[in-house]
From TrEMBL:
Residues 1-146 form the UspA domain. It comes from Tenacibaculum holothuriorum. This is Universal stress protein. Belongs to the universal stress protein A family. InterPro entries: Universal_stress_UspA (IPR006015), UspA (IPR006016).
Length: 278
């Protein structure tokens, strides 16, 4: 039984992320926890305005519970709804990251699924500060689903890396499970700004990947491009990639693909879901 946490702000992109997760796990028994978090309100000065429990119930929680009930009713009416999928609503009055981390520990969450907001008229998805915070601060495998992404069978997974870091078995295991579950090909993508040979440490880390995914359809690809994000975009489109995976702790390389001038804003230029490994 998989336990999936799906934070929602009741937007269309959040619902799309939930629908993607349902389709992805169509053949597996799952508990889907749909979470809405109302952030703590800072009024002014040094104090934080905290509502009483009674006021929270009257002014906020009851209304949100009704919205969540309507959302889950909508989900249960989907043609892809399966009997082995169960849905539970969660309402918190807290900081988003604290709430997500609490439920990850309490409910043994296997995957967090977040939707993204689209930039109108552009082929660019801007992942808001909430999703950016989750990627950086929540140590649980996270699936980022762009607003216009629609589930298709996972046949090709891209794994951009610079081979600079050692990846633990615990970190790589969700990716191995994904490859095993979908029988997808894994395309390890090394991108450098100029042609250079791998050093001994990078060669060791590459060998680890070769050993760990030895039973998979594993291929290595090497590209040279001054802009890493452009190279990833080109590779994803040319190979018809269905999902991109990356290890979050490889932050320097991670930032070149996702983070631009402001760390709190992420530019993500594709409609392909992004799996963040921790």
């Amino acid at each position: 039984m998989k336990n999936i946490l799906v934070p929602t702000d009741f937007s269309e992109n959040a619902f799309n992320a939930l629908q993607y997760a349902i389709d992805f796990y169509t053949n597996e028994a799952c508990n889907f926890y749909v979470l809405h978090v109302k952030p703590v309100i800072n009024i002014s000065g040094d104090s934080t305005y905290l509502l009483s429990t009674q006021n929270i119930e009257q002014n906020y929680t009851e209304a949100v519970k009704l919205q969540l009930e309507q959302l889950i009713k909508k989900v249960n009416e989907l043609p892809t709804k399966k009997a082995h999928h169960q849905f539970f609503s969660l309402v918190d009055y807290n900081h988003l990251i604290d709430s997500i981390n609490h439920h990850i520990n309490e409910k043994s969450i296997d995957l967090v699924v977040m939707g993204t907001k689209g930039a109108s008229g552009l082929k660019e998805v801007i992942i808001g500060s909430n999703t950016g915070d989750v990627i950086k601060k929540v140590h649980c495998t996270t699936l980022v689903v762009p607003e216009n992404a629609r589930f298709t069978p996972i046949k090709e997974v891209a794994f951009p890396t610079d081979f600079s870091m050692f990846y633990s078995i615990e970190t790589l295991l969700p990716l191995l499970n994904l490859i095993y579950k979908t029988k997808a090909s894994l395309r390890v993508l090394h991108i450098s700004k100029k042609e250079v040979d791998l050093d001994d440490s990078q060669k060791d880390n590459k060998s680890l990947l070769e050993d760990f995914f030895a039973e998979s359809d594993l291929n290595f690809h090497y590209l040279t491009n001054s802009k890493v994000e452009d190279a990833v975009q080109c590779f994803v489109e040319s190979r018809d990639i269905n999902m991109i995976a990356m290890v979050a702790k490889n932050l320097n390389y991670f930032q070149q693909i996702l983070f631009h001038t402001k760390v709190e804003k992420i530019s993500y230029h594709t409609n392909v879901p992004f799996l963040v490994l921790h």
